[in-house]
Amino acid sequence: MSNDGNEDPYLMLETSIREQLDELQPILPDCCIYRVPPKLRSVNEKAYTPQIASIGPLHLGKLELQAMEDQKMRYLKAFLDRTNMSLKNCIKVMKEWEERARNCYAERIKLTSDEFVKVILVDSCFIIEAILRYTASDMKEQTDFLTKPHMIYHVRTDLILLENQLPFFVLNGLFSIAFNDQSRTTFPELCINYFRGLMITRDFEKTVNNLMIQLKSGYEVKHLLDLLRISHISSSLMLRPEGRGKLIKIRNAAALQEAGMTFKRGSINCLLDLRFIVGVLEIPQITIDDFSEFVLRNLVAFEFCHYPFDSYITDYIIFMDSLIDTDKDVDILVENDVIMNWLGDSSAVAALVNSLAIETIVWGMTGANFNIIYESLNAYCNVRWHKWKATLKCDYFSTPWRIVSTIAAVVLLLLTFVQTITSIISL
Q: Would you state the pLDDT for residue 385?
């Protein structure tokens, strides 16, 4: 069609772009549930993908996860029977929360209102019921295959995946309404008890204490993965100076040991509470097992998307990656009670830690608190006397036999010297 001079040649394109802009979903403050970025997912896709249960809308309808849908409905029925809540009231509550819940997802959820509410309701009841059945033995059912030990671990792992999250205000709110504050234990405490087998640090009392301090200070939990994250972080460490630090290279554990440094299990159970005092590097003990990779990768992915300037867990991963290059480094940390290795193979731990740091170094540059540790370690290593002292201790005083041999050699040398002097005088 020819233009007669009165037509706007840009109108069609403008209209098309305008329609896209009108449909564009704004990123709101509630946004906290994301797709894992492709650059992270490509390292190990399985670590971010649910294996048994789809939670929320992002993996809804996947054929390989359909087998769990009937069990979810059984859990919904059990939840309604246990709480005496009517299904209609549950739907009403979810309808009231729908808009805020939708805003928690970074992408537009293309489900109708009824479809979305059904997903959130069924999955919320499933999670609450799963946690209750784990924490209270009298609530378990003999025919429930999900309460078998191996299934518990697989379900728990699916529940902490970044793409498999529900807004925490929905879970906590539904729990509060259902039990009308009759439970002596808060829902966050029940959650941490349920996930204790996935914690990187295993001192449960200190973990709960960390969590409760955070909640009392007004921290608003975003979802279950976020709950796991703040349980590993001391509230005092969250007050670190703003801004990013510079990337500082440090030596691995073997090289640090050769430079005269010793490692010690930290007395504080916050994952990030690293201390370096007079040649001793204190690191809280961590547990590495078959599920650690799932937990750590999803925590790093969440920080990548939501906390790029408060990437505490990522900072810690980069620190451990600096310490560990080979199985020798792992062995040193295991011997000093810093790492509890449930993988068995030290080289497997080294490979895991190194792979966790892939694609994180550039954006996850360590903050001010870690920089102080890095600079202190390098300053200590640059003092030659520390290395000489370590070499002397390693070569001559590392075992009782070497101590005896060294003392005998020194005594023999002194006797030879005295005999020589005596012979010279007698001349």
A: 45
Alpha-helical runs (H) found in 47-103: 69-83, 87-103
Question: In angstroms, what CA-CA distances link 183 with 84, 157, 223, 311, 322?
Answer: 15, 26, 21, 34, 45
For residue 282, list its beta bridge partners.
264, 275
SS3 state of residue 241 = coil
Q: Are 170 and 120 in contact (CB under 8 A)?
A: yes
Residue 115, CA distances (Å) to 58, 60, 61, 95, 119 in order: 13, 11, 12, 11, 6
How far is Cα 375 from Cα 358, in angstroms, rounded to an integer? 23
Distances (CA, A) of 378 to 260, 266, 363, 420: 12, 20, 23, 46
pLDDT recorded at residue 364: 47
DSSP line for 146-196: GGSHHHHHHHHHHHT-GGG---HHHHHHHHHHHHTT--SS-HHHHHHHHTG
Q: Using alpha carbons only, how large is the chain's radius of gyration in Å?
A: 29
Contact 165, 225 (CB under 8 A): yes
pLDDT per position as a tens digit, 181-220:
666 789 999 999 999 889 888 777 778 888 888 888 889 9
The pLDDT mean for the chain works out to 85
Q: What angle do CA 366, 367, 369 make, to 5 degrees?
A: 115
Strands (E), 191-296: 262-265, 275-277, 280-283, 286-288
DSSP state of 308: T
For 255, which DSSP code? H
Cα separation of 184 and 419, whole Å?
82
Separation between Cα atoms, residue 345 and residue 330, nearest integer Å: 10
